[in-house]
Amino acid sequence: MLKIIEKTKLWFGISILVIAIGIGAMVYRGGLNLGLDFQGGTKITIDMGAEFNKIEVDEIVKKYADDAVTNTLNDTQLEVKAKEFDSNKVSELMKELKEKYSLKDDALLNQQEIGASVSADLTRNALISLGIAAVAMLIYIAIRFEFNFGVAAIVALLHDIVITVTVYAIFNIPLNTPFIVAILTIIGYSINDTIVIFDRIRENQKKMRRVSHAEVANVSITQTYFRSIITSLTTLITITAVNVLVPSVREFTVPLIIGIACGAYSSIFIASPVWVMLKNRK
């Protein structure tokens, strides 16, 4: 039988250490690296007409926008996002690309300006969505299981979100709207994994009335951890393949990979220990 609950301080310590590193990175850099969708800026789509060397094109783009983020939409199309990328710079960039790669006159497929007001609305709506999702899950789990299970599940979900944001802070990855969609997806996936363990704990509570809550949790985790790990691993393999083979969706798949890995960790090492702590305090 796995002794998970007895090492609660270790599991909590690992998470606290990672979060502390992330906070240090945010303080050092002056906050998170908010992308175009949250701070406003310009997004353009360019048709290169044929396959191209992305590294070479990136070097040209960086001359006109240091903060530019480029993504290949397919073999011939390139998307460029930058916070300070006015029309003059776009024109100069297109002129150089046309001369170097013999692009067509209509190579600039799209140019979109994103204002700061739209970004503020997006941030507010994202936070509201996360709040509603958390409250709805707490109510469901409290009714379906018990209130302590609900609190433990929400703590695990918050852990997944904070760790995902922390990783973004450590590696200075830009945050854009796909990140919010990914976070909501992570919440749904992680809560499902946690409920599997909680359901087993509830069943074992009825069979093991004379043992401690810690032992019930250890037995339940031992019976379900292999299923949780295999499920998360197969999902991660699929998403990683998509991340490698479909570059245009990396802003969505990268936080998914981080969040699902965190969800597998928190379901076993965070949610159950928190439940035991709540039961013992009661």
Automatic annotation (TrEMBL):
GO terms for cellular component: plasma membrane. Keywords: Cell membrane, Membrane, Protein transport, Translocation, Transmembrane, Transmembrane helix, Transport. GO terms for biological process: intracellular protein transmembrane transport; protein targeting; protein transport by the Sec complex. One of its GO terms (molecular function) is protein-transporting ATPase activity. SUPFAM superfamilies: Multidrug efflux transporter AcrB transmembrane domain. Its main location: membrane. The chain crosses the membrane at residues 10-28, 126-143, 150-171, 177-198, 225-246, 252-278. In the C-terminal section; belongs to the SecD/SecF family. SecF subfamily. Part of the Sec protein translocase complex. Interacts with the SecYEG preprotein conducting channel. SecDF uses the proton motive force (PMF) to complete protein translocation after the ATP-dependent function of SecA. This is Protein-export membrane protein SecF. The gene is secF.
